[in-house]
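USER:
Before I trust my own judgement here, I would like a peer's view. Write it directly below this note and I will take it from there.

ASSISTANT:
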Amino acid sequence: MLELAARLRSLPRDDLGAALATREFEGSGVRDLFDLAEVLLAPDSLDHVLSRLDRPRLAVLAATASLTADHTDTTVEAITAELARLGASPELTAAVPALIARLSDSLLVVAHDDDRVHLPAAVGARLAVRTERDIPDAAELAAPAPPVLVGIDDVDRTLLERRAAEAAYATVAATAELLAAVGAQPARELAKGGLTLPDSKRLSEACGVDLDALPRLFHRADEAGLVLRDGAYWLESDIGAEWAQLGSAARWQRLAEQWLARIPPSLRDLVARRSESISATDLRDDVRWLYPAGGKWLDDGLDRLVDDAEALGLAVAGEPVASGRLVLTGEVAAAAAELAVHFPAQVSKVYVQHDLTIVSPGPLEPVLDARLRGIADVEGRDLASTYRVSAASVNRGLAAGETAETILEFLGEISLTGIPQPVAYLVGEASRRFGSVRVAAADQADLPARTMVRSDDEQLIGTLAVDQTLNAVGLRLAGPHRLLSRFAPDVVFWALADAKYPVAAEDHDGTIVRLHRHHLAQSPTPQPASDQVAALLDRLLAKHDDDATDEVAWLARQLEAAARSKETLTVTVRMPGGTTADYLLAPASVANGRLRARDRKADIERTLPLSAIAAVSPAPSNV
């Protein structure tokens, strides 16, 4: 531990921060660099970092452990020779210096400028425990990678590519429907995690996916930043709204880029090695070979990556496809172009029919689809989609700022069949009745009510007062033409709109106010997260000066640490006349500026003033 503590002390702040960022440890009780070294050598911290080491680094660490079993240091040259003796490939032996540097950066070994390598005893001991359980021994770790067997491929690649494109398009389309549904009505998150069951059912129905498949679809949208949580509710984000306006290929590309970003670079290199023959089974085998100590965290991550790969059309039933290979090599745009060849072509024209339905013969262009949804309800989504115009849907469009003229003009521009008379009549009638019911903020005199509902039609007011579907907003009569509610105006407005009343919102002057149900969450500007490592370093390094007082304190902490771990040290003592003498001492305690220790050679107890100690170092291995 002493050498690790000294290593921590010698590192510049930025290098120390980068090294600590690679480790997981409990820093709440860390008071100085010795405490830090101690928590870094704790079993839990070591298990975490060992589980995330790839095979080459584990091989170098295991070879180092075998060479330092007698607690002596070793050298890079000796480690290289040991790996060669174990049958390591030339590539691995040539990479030993770089791998030692990476292990040193992770604070698992201490690499000295003179080519010496020190392995803390705790690291060697923990590696030995894990080797008995789940880590291969040094010889297995050093063995070359298994050869890649490329068999004759009898699979119809064209069929696979088409199936991959179908899966990719289905995922893109379902994600778009998810955003539309969340944008229209936010989804509530349970305190224990996960969406509420009613919202889950609503979203799965809107997306056309099974209820069990919704969490993965939703999680992909979350990871891509398409939805954001605001308090207890999930909303479509501004990034999601931008994504929804893209074409199918560009939408898929965003999702594929997010998938690729979750794969560690070393794993990408491994997959590229087998890019011509890799399947889901091969991928799992290769990853477990590369990370032999991975365990559960690795299996869970693999499950997600493989499942998402299938959903994004990067593989079909575990078989590789060209798009998957392109994505893994970073050519995401090329993969999108290749898949887009098999995507259904977008259309800009629809059939407006007498039965008030609108049929799109293919995926409607995103901008047109978004506007059409504002005045019509989606009835069926597939390669051909169906929308239905109703009084309520037209009223929704009017409330958002449309007029009868703009609605009919828009339908005329996109219709291949003109505008049937029933559609024109419905739009005109809905426009005439729009605003028969008005919603506004209540006056001060109406407190504690927050919303006033009015209509010139006394019979309509009576109908609203007894409508059971409006019980949730608690409407109560306040006159022949007025109702009051304790809920906010927008809540009451959308309750009336959902109940299919011709409602309009107005301000205090009676001017109609346009309301949009589609609320977007603004993606937050990335803020530097609370950096616990930086806070820890601020605390530890604030006390660090290079004066004599600090040197005495550093010496005392080295001796205290040796006393706790029952280590024997070589203690260099200043003698009268300016000479020095080395003693092999096992520190027992440090107090009042003096060291009490057992002299291993003379077998006597010595007490020395700290001011007389010139240096301490680990004892020779044969002691």
